[in-house]
Amino acid sequence: MTDRIAPLASRPAWKALQQHADTLRPQHLRDIFQADPSRGSRFTAQACGLFLDYSKNRITDETLKLLIELAHQSGLRERAEAMFTGKKINTTENRAVLHVALRAPRSESILVDGEDVVPGVHQVLDKMAAFAEQIRSGAWLGYTGKPIRNIVNIGIGGSDLGPVMAYEALRHYSRRDLNFRFVSNVDGTDFAEAVRDFHPEETLFLVASKTFTTLETMTNAHSARAWTLGRLKQTEAIARHFAAISTNAEAVTKFGIDTANMFGFWDWVGGRYSMDSAIGLSTMIAIGPENFRSLLEGFHAMDVHFRTAPLEKNLPALLGLLTVWYTNFFHAQTVAILPYEQYLKRFPAYLQQLTMESNGKHVTLDGTEVQADTGPIYWGEPGTNGQHSFYQLIHQGTRLIPCDFIGFYKSINPLGRHHDMLMANVFAQAEALAFGKTAAEVRAEGVPEPLVPHKVFAGNRPSNILLAERLTPYTLGTLVALYEHSVFTQGAIWSIDSFDQWGVELGKVLAQRILGEIESPSEPSLAHDTSTSNLVRLYRSQR
Ligand code: G6Q
Fold first, then answer.
1. Is 204's pLDDT higher than 60?
2. Residue 3 — very low, low, confident or very high, per pLDDT cuts 50/70/90?
3. In terms of Cα–Cα distance, which of 171, 126, 125, 179 is closest to 148?
């Protein structure tokens, strides 16, 4: 499929965008807005309950037209279709990329190697629902006959960030009489603090690992096993206090977890795309199967929108193309994610993995160097806290940082004027970023001349505003899928494999050799560079 696609720099739309960017860069959003009175309402799009205002971007109708042409010349549509129909678009791992199947309705069918994967997805979802209900109702008893009150998810990366983010985001919908904790770091403090006030009799561990070999997760799982057996003594207790989420049944059995309590998924689900698979079991226990289904419906609605809506009205395509626009034509290096919703406090961290692990690539699908910068750095914090720290740099620093503001019409916790104040900040920040404050305006405020340059805001700093009614499981599903497909769009333009992660794989093996040297009873012969060898020696002598 990629054979037909010309290298990035030779695509006609790419060349046209380069010229167009030269004419647009000197223009200010103030003038762009003045020249086009309908812009504020016209450069908007909505789908699946999300409203996107992208008018405060440094674009014109011509920009949009060219970006959409670029998408077509890059084969975005064909590539998306290949994903939705189970083609092995993750070529470096020879795998289909089918997180979209995780939220496909029962009636759909998606074939991988001739086999319909949708029934299997629903089988697992049903099994998860039955298990979750047992925990939630108190019917599931621990080894000594007590109901489970504490749920500890052990996992890392894609097997942690999604569950943590979703738990925080949907706390309002979660069972408050159950405690949820998440252990990921191999730093023993993470585990120790997670269980310090828990009793094994009432604690259930969910060991979430696609491979069931990840060093951090297996180390934490073994510590959890030892902690449980320390009090409950009998190995039969493990079956009542551990469940596994994995594709590796053999390793799960070896660990001592009953495969009846194993929830499977498939090699066509990437870790960072797995929060809506069995990896979301902690989420389902917290919010209940019905809310979990509503989360999946939100995902699915955005999938359908991405697959079918024309690109000029397609939210994920627009977001992705705008990111390409700033990354490649304005040399922006980052994107700030600014949710004005406290429950979304882990959303930027979640998106960091989704976006940066997916598009942090330097070669195209055919192994040649990409002809442009790829994946920008995503980062952010919930508003309004960021306003009192790093927004200074966004407003008056020397870098261009496109921002995504995320807000809601209604608060989950209405409290006096809080929500109106919160939202006033969203609109005011985006306005100030775009339009700034001129020297004349500063002087008119009576500011003494030496201070004028310090108080000038250049403006012309782009942002998107995403609005929805209220943060619900459904809305969260639409938001996550929105960014998943934005990442997809960017990856398609750059012709990279957004679904492998060789850098992460490297990290999984690197430490093993040094660990052996650190733990060696006799003095190891160290053959690293002099710095590393010296550090290992120092640590051995001081530990
Ligand atoms: C995600 C990555 C990575 C992975 C973790 C955990 O896309 O592959 O973050 O999720 O390394 O892997 P396991 O689930 O296999 O333990």
1. yes
2. low
3. 179
Query: What are the tens digits of pLDDT across the range 369-415?
Result: 999 999 999 999 998 999 999 999 999 999 999 999 999 999 999 99
DSSP secondary structure code for residue 356 in this structure: I
Q: Alpha-carbon distance 122 to 516, whole Å?
A: 43
Question: Which residue CA neighbors atom 9 of ligand 1 most closely?
Answer: 157
CA distance 183 to 161: 10
Cα of 465 to ligand 1 centre, how many Å?
A: 31
Cβ 158 under 6 angstroms from ligand 1: yes
Q: Whose CA is nearest to atom 8 of ligand 1?
A: 271
Amino acid at 355: T
What's the whole-number mean pLDDT along residues 102-119? 97
Query: Is residue 81 a contact partner of residue 97, using CB atoms and an 8 Å limit?
Result: no
Strand order in the sheet with 179-183: 179-183, 150-154, 203-208, 242-246, 262-264
For residues 520-536, give the mean pLDDT: 95
- Rounded CA separation 248/272 (Å): 18
Which pTM does this prediction carry?
0.97
- State in Å: Cα 454 to ligand 1 middle: 46
Q: Is any atom of ligand 1 closer than 6 Å to the C-beta of 272?
A: yes
User: Is residue 357 annotated as part of the catalytic site, yes or no?
Assistant: yes
* 508: annotated active-site residue: yes
For the stretch 316-355, pLDDT in tens is 999 999 999 999 999 999 999 999 999 999 999 999 999 9
Pocket flag, ligand 1, residue 163 (CB < 6 Å): no
Tokens of 163: 């569950």
For 334, the 3-state DSSP assignment is strand
The one catalytic residue in 357, 381, 484, 517 is 357
- For the chain, the residue count is 543
